[in-house]
Amino acid sequence: MAITLTAKRLVTAETIIHHPLITLDGPDIRAISSREASQVTGVTHDFGDATLTAGLLDIHMHGAVGHDVMEGTPEALGAISAFLARHGVTEYLATTVTASLDFTLRALDRISSYIEANPAADEAKPIGIHIEGPFVSHAKRGMHPAQFIVPPTIDLLDRFWQASKGRIKLMTIAPEVPGALETIARATQLGIRTSIGHSNANKAETLLSLEAGATSATHTFNAMRALDHREPGILGVVLDCDKLYAELICDGVHVAPEMVRLWFKAKGPARAILITDSLEAAGMPNGIYKLGETAVHVQDGRCLTDAGVLAGSVIALDQAVERMRDFTGADLPTAIRLASRNPARMLGLPDSLTVGALANFNVYDSNGMRTQTILRGLSIQL
Which helix (H) or strand (E) holds 253? Predict the structure, then answer.
């Protein structure tokens, strides 16, 4: 049975529809119009002064609620997916981290098997895998274990691809390391998007990676060569290149508000992407957790390895949207698109909130507070 929703406004990828009328057919959107333009009078649910927006897409997250995606079990991934849905994330990329080869291959296989299954009604859907490592720079490895970092090769990427059953959607790589350009070109052939990061690359090395097919940058500012006015390096290219997307962890810990504003001025509303880089500690109290095979100490929102290196975050993507608005003054539609439309377009996915798309929404009240997630046509408890 079809149901019909309405609200004060609907924020789509490109526009705002005032007084929308949205007809759902099970988990899908059947029609979108406005109440003024439609002859339909029966409305199943009226959200009043609320704003409906797209569900969020987190393309860089490692875990939550005490579980790491590399565990790969249905129990672990189910718990993570349910946590994400409660925070407005309706789809995500399960993100691996540099680990031993056997551990990585096993994780890719297990995550792929979970992706094949239908998610529970209250779970966000993993739509692919993001491999962050092992193709990173030793100089800018951050928390990635040095003993497991290896030079990128086409053969190893193919092994990862096969283990994932073709479900790798995004790869982080340092463009300056030997073999990187060939591996980026191979990833492009396979349909994998490449994100440059954990890198000490200079300007010339970074530009070569763009020619090879790189499309985005991993957690801008973090684990990147510092900006210099004569040798801008990877960071200068990332901020300057209009065609390159750029992730950012907007938690107030990884990047200062001034630099968030600089990033947004440089990338603009069409190329900036909000991520979380969340660990299994997200949604958990202070304590000791793991990222891959590395212990991480979490205290008051800061995640540090035994060596004192910053390692991921405990923020959720709806919270990143809120802080983006606080730090920059961006309005709700703009901030939402940084966490929905932009990551989808970077991956080559169709826009959400169109006829035929899944009925994934977030509901924001008149004060701009998120109050509800609608996941594949069903409301879930926050």
Answer: none
- Cis status, amide bond into 134, omega within 30 of 0: yes
Please classify residue 259 by burial: count the beta carbons closer than 10 Å to its beta carbon, then call 0-12 exposed, 13-18 middle and 19+ buried.
middle
Q: CA 69 to CA 212: how far, in whole Å?
A: 29
Q: What's the pTM?
A: 0.97
Q: Same domain for 281 and 367? A: no
Domain co-membership, 9 together with 157: no
Residues 6+ apart with CB under 8 A from 215: 193, 194, 195, 244, 245, 346
| Number of compact structural domains in the chain | 2
Judgement on whether residues 230 and 262 belong to the same structural domain of the protein: yes
Q: What is the span of the domain harbouring residue 18?
A: 3-52+355-380
- What CATH number is given to the structural domain containing 326? 3.20.20.140
**Residues 330 and 367 occupy one common structural domain:** no
Q: Please, is 179 exposed, middle or buried when counting C-beta atoms within 10 Å of its C-beta (0-12, 13-18, 19+)?
A: middle
Q: Are strands 216-217 and 193-196 parallel, antiparallel or unpaired?
A: parallel
Active site residues: 277
Q: Per-residue pLDDT tens for 48-64?
A: 999 999 999 999 999 99
Shared domain for 107 and 14, answered yes or no, is no
Structure tokens that stand for 70 in this block: 């590399």
Which residue, 129, 82, 136, is CA-closest to 109?
Answer: 129
Q: What is the pLDDT of residues 8-36, one digit of tens each?
A: 999 999 999 999 999 999 999 999 998 87
